[in-house]
From TrEMBL, chains A, B:
<dbReference type="InterPro" id="IPR036412">
    <property type="entry name" value="HAD-like_sf"/>
</dbReference>
<comment type="function">
    <text>May function as somatic storage protein during early seedling development.</text>
</comment>
<feature type="signal peptide">
    <location>
        <begin position="1"/>
        <end position="21"/>
    </location>
</feature>
<dbReference type="InterPro" id="IPR005519">
    <property type="entry name" value="Acid_phosphat_B-like"/>
</dbReference>
<dbReference type="InterPro" id="IPR014403">
    <property type="entry name" value="APS1/VSP"/>
</dbReference>
<dbReference type="InterPro" id="IPR023214">
    <property type="entry name" value="HAD_sf"/>
</dbReference>
<keyword id="KW-0758">Storage protein</keyword>
<dbReference type="InterPro" id="IPR010028">
    <property type="entry name" value="Acid_phosphatase_pln"/>
</dbReference>
<dbReference type="GO" id="GO:0045735">
    <property type="term" value="F:nutrient reservoir activity"/>
</dbReference>
<keyword id="KW-0325">Glycoprotein</keyword>
<keyword id="KW-0732">Signal</keyword>
<comment type="similarity">
    <text>Belongs to the APS1/VSP family.</text>
</comment>
<dbReference type="Pfam" id="PF03767">
    <property type="entry name" value="Acid_phosphat_B"/>
</dbReference>
<dbReference type="GO" id="GO:0003993">
    <property type="term" value="F:acid phosphatase activity"/>
</dbReference>
<protein>
    <recommendedName>
        <fullName>Acid phosphatase 1</fullName>
    </recommendedName>
</protein>
Amino acid sequence: MGKNLGFLLAFTGLLISSAVADWNILRPWKSSLVQEGLKNYCESWRINVELNNIKGFDVVPQECVEFVGKYMTSSQYKADIERAIEESVLYLSKGCCSLKGDDKDAWIFDIDDTLVSIVPYYKKHHFGGEKLNVTSLEEWMRKNRAPALRETLRFFNDIRGRGFKIFLISSRRECLRSSTADNLIKVGYHGWTRLILRKEADELMEVQKYKAKARQGLVKEGYRIWGIVGDQWSSFEGTPSAKRTFKLPNPLYYVS
Amino acid sequence: MGKNLGFLLAFTGLLISSAVADWNILRPWKSSLVQEGLKNYCESWRINVELNNIKGFDVVPQECVEFVGKYMTSSQYKADIERAIEESVLYLSKGCCSLKGDDKDAWIFDIDDTLVSIVPYYKKHHFGGEKLNVTSLEEWMRKNRAPALRETLRFFNDIRGRGFKIFLISSRRECLRSSTADNLIKVGYHGWTRLILRKEADELMEVQKYKAKARQGLVKEGYRIWGIVGDQWSSFEGTPSAKRTFKLPNPLYYVS
């Protein structure tokens, strides 16, 4: 019964929070039970995003912005990424992929929040709690300030050293090509085989379809896709996929 | 640097813990930094299981048994399940599925840790920290003591009421048929169309392949599969899949 009361209080807290623009206004009245309930609520939201049960959200729920912000700047987020990359390394070291040495063994990476972090942009924009302004994000991207995700960089170098051909398939638009390449090189990435960005025609379709189409192209060219590392489920879905995919956590935004 | 020290201590703690049979022996010496590092480590393990990056584990890592046990008996686990089911309800209420009224609209459920909870068994068996003894688990299953997952039961009734045909596709073996049906009925489930269990021949193949084969059978019979609710990625993988799938959390065990 005590727990039910806790949930009731928590739920009331959420209702109130939805009706008020800034959750922080309520903070002085938040009981620890409400805070516990809110943490439960936001953690459930986050895990269900990662489970791909919650799809296509435009913004992080207002009441979870603080929670998501904390996670994205935490040692937990770094540890979660590290573990995902460790599993990719394990996949390689267990002899996942018998490379033929014909230059047709491919590995695919996403760019944003996979190779480089765009969390610094979101930090200034309410951690996903406000609707994305593409113009403003692209302006930021043109400044080439996205830092490398250290673990992914190390893995990228490992993959390249093993003789895979690396393809970067991103939902970034074609007009960002030179900034994107500049940013990647600046933070230590080099030696990819192809940087695939969205052409105007691709902007008419869902990112998931555009990425699957790009993979179809690679397979037609004779490439064998051994793995994909990305932060969005839309980077893996559709056919052809890869022998293994590795999903990095990302509760900031959803790309369909 | 403080954080690095924390990780170093945590890592040392993990090394020690791996070498010692019972982590609890070490508890008096665990500093709060080590505890924090261990929590990070186990949370990363858990999220990477849910992201399907960590596959095919036989046991929960020894040092995370306490962490997993806490989660599986927490209000967080309940809230996570509730949210997953809420998303399934949302999918229905948004007009996901235009039922034709020809009795060919299908919905699939897993059984264990989807319709009913087998956490009570794992509670007595080190929360996934010891290798599964199938004989002992099946003995427990024959006692029909698995309680319903309340939210899934409500959703099951909702689905049935809307006119879907319900198929239960489980990795339980055929010899458990009557116990399984008894247990399900006892806790409130009724009105499913078919209970599909693993025949002897099916035991030779991976569960993922057996479940895909069962779905192939349904599609051949003319069924349209609108949704699957399950706790294992192997319940969704392979073709045909469903229009939408809903993954319930489960860090206790992995079914390939």
